[in-house]
Amino acid sequence: MNPAAASALVPSLDGYRLLSVVEEYLVALRVAGRSPRTIEWYRANLAEFIRFLERDGSVTSVADLQPAAVRRWLLALNARPTPLAPSSLAGRVRTIKAFGTWLAAELDMPANPVRAVPIPRVPDQLVPSLRDHEIGRLIQAAAESRHPQRDLALVLMMIDTGIRLSELAALRVGDVDLIEGRCRVMGKGSRERVVPIGRRTRKALRAWTSFRRPVPVASSPLFAGPQGSSLSPRGVHQLVRRVARRAGIETRCSPHILRHTFARAFLTNGGDVFSLQRILGHSPRSIQVTRRYVDLLDDDLRAVHRQASPVDRLQ
Known about the structure:
Low-confidence stretches: 1-11
CATH superfamily of the largest domain: Intergrase catalytic core
Strand content: under 5%
Mean pLDDT: 85
Largest sheet: 3 strands, antiparallel
Structural class: mainly alpha
CATH topology of the largest domain: hpI Integrase, Chain A
Order of helices and strands: HHHHHHHHEEEHHHHHH
């Protein structure tokens, strides 16, 4: 069915300009407590879709939100000189479908208008992470950096807890209990969780907070720059990259890689996937997201196989 015929079937939708409705959707996301980063991601994807509709000659009303329009948009994205990665395409489709679900409820439509658009399959990929010798070099480089107390505590915190970059940047001194060895973290969707902290990381955090001047209070940022202001997510990312270069780590190293590193080490050291799910802050409904760390530990599986191969163990 072409867009004109679809509009004829639902003439009342022509009165709703897509751009205005998108703004209402973003307001609804803020009210629902979605993170600023998530809202900005939705805004960018929906704005990109609307720009495509305008170039495509559509009038960009709600009636234009049809599966055929979404499919033409995906084809245009794939036709770029540098095509988008499958995960990026899938993310855009999820955005459109989530918007369609909200739209159907908000305007009392019979169903999500783009429910027929499938989410592109994202091929499984090996989860990148640092190996034990690289972890040791990274920790040593942090301890020898320009700000050793802070950098060592920060690197250990990320490797020891698997905390997200945005979560770490938002931590306050009062969120950390160095006696009980735990940290209160505000995760995605404003879901709070408690993350355990190991003995060595607690020692580094204690040294860092004792070193700081003026003495931090509970509301002070846990990780701050020389002037006492909170390190931004970008600042944390740059810090990790800088320490990795100092450590001579040639593979890519970022806060997200350190999160993967924690997950891999947690499982290979005997942790279970359900505990990992809680520590990482994955939704109970997204156990498959956590299980990929089990399924894709290729090097670790080969190491276990070398020790347990029934053929190689034959005398």
